[in-house]
Write a structure and sequence with these properties.
The complex is a heterodimer. Chain A is of the alpha+beta class. Chain A is built from 9 helices and 11 strands. Chain B has 4 helices and 2 strands, in the order H-H-E-E-H-H. The chains are: A alpha+beta, B mainly alpha.
Chain lengths: 260, 126
């Protein structure tokens, strides 16, 4: 009896090992490819190690100067305009105190203190939203963009709690009823009720070789480029100007720089 | 066997009744084509018809992950042709008639994908 049991356990153990080992040895057994073709980057897509944005805020005279940028972004991405507290924010404006709450200096230049500042997702190097997302619906791409896959968003809003910049908005109601134009932009989807959304750094435009919509509409007052490339336009602007970022003490390393 | 005649006849009737749908189906009389209307200008889809019919939803899922997560936004089909990965800008370019193409087949097969809560059907405002 004893011997029988021993040999049975041996055989069973060996066969379980062989079965599981055999499965693991097949490459990609768990994630089989469907398509017979291959995948590639776009031919005219620019490459960067880390995309970043530099805002020449002193070249904007008032909130109305930002209006074309907001319109361009929201039309491009079918961002709804919902009256009240449930609005969707991709590119928006706020006061100095709300934009740079860490800055405690008294007797600041009155013009700077009274101005409005453009806000968008900071595409952080260490994005808290990505860490807290339970479904990996939000993630970081290779070139530093914090992107979202709305298909996978379950609307738990952890990312909204995680984001220190308020850059994420939840669709409490069907956004299609509040689109900015009578007909939505047919080349970009809308979102649906129950998902969180935010600025994408125009990754879909970058893939087609275009610069982000707000950068295009800013007529040179917003720079967009590779932060890791010492000769890029953003690095040259940062090297020759004093810049600040939002809430630097949190260590998220935002990718949006403000030249005040 | 006790009451063999009735029991065996009963079993045969039971089996015939149970498998009747298959026999009726084999005659092909009740077969209805979904009547989908194919795009007029384009003859070839990304891959061959058989593959697209059976696997288009898996291909779309794979396209989504490749494009969004790996930033591979170009698909090189098995015949070497390059396609830009986009449901709205590539697929719907040819398959522009939602009612006659997507919907007919989906309704006939009782599948109701929720692509269109976000993706925009061509020619549909809001």
């Amino acid at each position: 009896m004893n011997k029988n049991r021993r040999s049975f356990l041996k055989a069973a153990g060996l066969s379980v090992f062989a079965l599981s080992g055999g499965l693991a040895a097949v490459p990609g057994a768990t994630q089989a490819r469907t398509a017979p073709g291959r995948y590639d980057r776009g031919d005219n897509a620019p490459h960067a190690k880390r995309w970043a944005m530099v805002m020449y805020t002193r070249k904007f005279t008032g909130p109305e100067d930002y209006e074309p940028l907001i319109v361009a972004c929201h039309k491009e991405h079918n961002v709804p305009n919902i009256p009240g507290a449930q609005n969707i924010k991709w590119f928006w404006l706020d006061s100095y105190e709300h934009t740079f709450p860490d800055d405690m200096n008294a007797y600041l230049n009155e013009k700077i203190r009274a101005a409005s500042y453009p806000l968008l997702c900071n595409h952080c190097t260490n994005p808290p939203c990505v860490r807290v997302c339970p479904t990996q619906a939000t993630y970081k791409t290779e070139d530093g963009i914090v992107a979202m896959d709305y298909h996978r968003c379950i609307g738990c809003r952890f990312c909204m709690a995680g984001c220190p910049y308020g850059a994420r908005s939840f669709n409490f109601i069907d956004p299609r009823k509040f689109l900015p134009a009578a007909t939505p932009n047919p080349v970009f989807p809308t979102r649906m009720i129950g998902v969180v959304e935010k600025c994408t750094f125009c990754s879909e435009r970058l893939a087609a070789g275009k610069i982000p919509a707000c950068v295009e509409a800013s007529k040179g007052r917003i720079l967009f480029g590779d932060l890791e490339d010492a000769s890029s336009n953003v690095r040259l602007a940062l090297a020759s100007n004093f810049s600040i970022r939002r809430k630097p003490s949190l260590g998220t390393q935002p990718g949006v720089y403000y030249l005040i | 066997m006790y009451n063999a005649k009735t029991v065996i006849t009963g079993i045969i009737i039971f089996i015939v009744l149970c498998t009747a749908p298959f026999w009726v189906g084999l005659t092909g009389k009740n077969y209805k084509s979904t009547g989908i209307v194919l795009p007029k200008d384009e003859k070839n889809c990304v891959e061959n018809v058989k593959f697209m019919r059976a696997e288009h939803m898996r291909l779309l899922n794979e396209w989504r992950d490749e494009a969004l997560r790996k930033e591979n936004r170009t698909y090189i089909a098995s015949d070497g042709k390059k396609w830009s990965i986009s449901l709205q800008n590539t697929c719907l370019n040819c398959h522009s008639d939602y009612k006659e193409f997507c919907e007919k087949c989906h309704v006939a097969n009782s599948v109701y994908p929720y692509c269109w809560t976000c993706h925009i059907i061509p020619g549909e405002s809001k």
